[in-house]
Automatic annotation (TrEMBL):
Highest taxon above the source species: Bacteria
Name the UniProt record assigns to this protein: MOSC domain-containing protein
Lineage: Bacteria, Pseudomonadati, Pseudomonadota, Alphaproteobacteria, Hyphomicrobiales
Organism: Antarcticirhabdus aurantiaca
Length: 182
């Protein structure tokens, strides 16, 4: 079964800020991420991770969030728009959090990213809207922590990505490997 969705919005920001700036298009570059974004690079660019070990590979080149999350948050009294949580790509129609590690997403005509794991929400989220951090975390029936703030990916093949582009999911061979925070 092929899973399909679409791109709702794209964003980037050359500065390390909480949110990003919506764009008409972004350019993904193989092995590096979103051209012109503060997280662009082969090695880790997230400031706290750079302080720990600047030689780590950058598994967080592209941040994707499902637009359905914004509707869920609106039902809880929050107002969140695409790019405000720092994502590069806002999707619709894909259960991003249910994908396995290694799933590949074809974005538009050329770009391909590989999902590396979950975004671990940080305390800056509450500075954006009080109580939002708690709303982005949940518990499974088994009591396991659920992180809802999107997935991270690396760029396997570059290309332009625009709102309205199709997304096609390719699942990896082998057993299902659940997403872990990266």
């Amino acid at each position: 079964m092929t899973q399909r969705g679409s791109v709702v919005a794209v964003a980037r920001d050359g500065e390390h800020r909480f949110g990003k700036v919506p764009q008409d298009a972004i350019q993904l570059v193989e092995g590096l991420g979103v051209e012109g974004d503060a997280h662009f690079g082969r090695t880790v660019q997230h400031r706290s991770r750079v302080r720990r070990d600047p030689t780590q590979p950058n598994l967080r080149q592209v941040h994707l969030i499902h637009a359905e999350l914004f509707a869920e948050l609106a039902g809880r009294g929050f107002s969140v728009e695409p790019a405000q949580l720092g994502e590069n790509v806002t999707t619709r129609g894909l259960a991003l959090l249910d994908l396995p590690t290694g799933a590949r997403l074809r974005l538009g005509a050329e770009a391909v990213v590989e999902v590396t794991g979950l975004r671990n929400p940080c305390a800056q989220i509450d500075a954006f809207q009080d109580g939002l951090m708690k709303a982005l975390l949940g518990r499974s029936p088994e009591g396991e922590l659920i992180r809802k703030s999107g997935v991270m990916a690396v760029v396997l093949r570059g290309g332009a990505v625009r709102p309205g582009d199709a997304i096609v999911v390719e699942r990896p061979e082998g057993p299902f490997a659940p997403l872990q925070p990266v």
